[in-house]
Design brief:
Radius of gyration: 32 Å
Number of strands: 0
Order of helices and strands: HHHHHHHHHHHHHHHHHHHHHHHHHHHH
Helix content: 55-70%
Distance between the termini: 91 Å
Length: 440
């Protein structure tokens, strides 16, 4: 018996694993067997693993015209849901050929088929699919219209202006089904496009659109959006808390360099209390804890400083804690210095580095004084971080401290750099130290 004949028998086996292995070999015998027929049959197999394998083979056989025709035909009305869904997944690999074939078949499909066709067009990820999707926007079935809008948001990534025009048109249509408008709004959020603030503000009043509208508010870059987001955060419950927090993070990051806008709102006591509570270690939801750290820092809430400073020792929170402290600015310096006093050398060095970037004219002298004390420990990581800090924060009194490390093998390079910078700022005291120095 030929191997191809054995393969056909294996495809009909009662053992699902044997069928899966047989499907895996179909591409190898595509010239000897009617591969499209067997692949199509496997796409409708009762076992999901066989269907998954068949999808892989269908992709390998692309751009087979025979198989493409069979895949499109599989979207016609039928009882095998698994076949139809598998065909959708496979069609994405056929690119423009699938777009053309689906466009010519839409009129013959039922509502479920048209919905699946929209999903298949999305899987091509080609902007040319927009034209094929447009007829579905006028479909009598709202589920089909919703699927078309979802697909437009996906393929519209490479044609954002056109996709946004389509989606925003549906969003503004007050006669449209609420869940279809929601699909349009989610699509706009997926594209990352900005909506006018008055539009977002109106949607915040709609219970169906509210959550997605909050995400849009976070990207709106409008000063009034911050107040609306803080009000929503105060009243949020359950999963809504994470939704508003994510929107607030987007908003705060957009204005990270403009503290006047971020701190134009005076958060209510309830908002402050909730943000601080969510940022504590007792909050086991790591995502909301990270977000709370960032938002509290951006809003300039000083009580977040010691919490964020403590979070620096948790590798899971390191990036967000650093971001929070950076957003808080010089007001975080006292808390960082306090954290560093009792910290391990590595954590102390990290605190020194952050303080170096945050200290202003008022806090720099205190920071430099503390850092010089810690350098006396001789811990190499602390000394190197301290020398780097004194380069920026030190005054003329630091010249002696820095020069004292020139003969230390591990710190000499950092000491030379710090001494050079300080000498440029304070030339006369530097010359005095040079004259008094030992020859070595």
């Amino acid at each position: 018996m030929k191997q191809s004949e054995e393969l056909v028998l294996a495809l009909a086996s009662s053992d699902s694993e044997q069928r899966r292995h047989a499907v895996e070999s179909l591409a190898e015998y595509a010239n000897e067997l009617d591969a499209p027929l067997h692949v199509l049959h496997a796409l409708g197999d009762e076992d999901w693993r066989v269907r998954k394998q068949a999808i892989e083979v269908a992709v390998q056989l692309a751009p087979s015209p025979e198989l493409l025709s069979a895949l499109v035909e599989a979207l016609m009305p039928g009882e095998n849901v698994g076949l139809r869904n598998a065909a959708v997944e496979a069609l994405g690999a056929y690119g423009q050929a699938a777009i053309d074939a689906l466009a010519s078949k839409l009129a013959a499909l039922d509502a479920d088929g048209r919905k699946l066709a929209a999903e298949a067009l999305a899987r091509t990820a080609l902007p040319s699919a927009l034209e094929a999707l447009k007829p579905l926007l006028a479909d009598r079935d709202p589920n089909v219209r919703a699927a078309a809008l979802d697909a437009i948001a996906i393929v519209g990534a490479a044609a954002a202006a056109e996709a946004f025009e389509i989606l925003s048109g549906f969003l503004q249509n007050s006669q449209e089904e609420a869940f279809v408008r929601l699909c349009a709004l989610d699509g706009i959020n997926r594209l990352g496009s900005l909506l006018p603030w008055p539009t977002v503000e109106r949607m915040l009043q709609n219970p169906v659109l509210e959550r997605s509208a909050l995400a849009a508010a976070g990207r709106s870059a409008h000063p009034e959006a911050l107040g609306a987001l803080l009000v929503a955060f105060e009243g949020a419950r359950g999963g809504g808390v994470s939704t508003v927090l994510a929107a607030l993070v987007d908003y705060c990051r957009a204005f990270a360099q403009n503290h006047l806008i971020l701190r134009s709102e005076d958060p209510s006591r309830a908002v402050v209390t909730r943000l601080l509570a969510l940022s504590l270690p007792s909050n086991e939801d790591l995502t909301s804890r990270k977000a709370a750290l960032i938002v509290a820092g951006a809003l300039g809430l000083e009580p977040i400083a010691p919490i964020a400073a403590e979070a620096l020792s948790d590798t899971r929170l390191l990036a967000e804690a650093d971001e929070s402290l950076s957003l808080l600015g010089a007001r975080a310096v006292p808390a960082l210095l306090e954290r560093a006093r009792a910290a391990e050398p590595e954590t102390r060095a990290a605190c020194i580095e952050i303080v170096t970037g945050l200290a202003d004219g008022k806090s720099a002298p205190l920071a430099a004084l503390e850092i010089r004390k810690w350098m006396d420990s001789g811990e190499p990581v602390v000394v190197r971080a301290g020398l780097g800090a004194l380069t920026r924060l030190g005054d003329e009194s630091c010249l002696a401290t820095v020069s004292g490390w020139l003969c230390n093998e591990e710190a000499s390079s950092a000491a030379e750099t710090a001494l050079a910078v300080l000498s440029q700022r304070f030339p006369e005291p530097a010359r005095k130290i040079a004259r008094q120095a030992r020859s070595e």
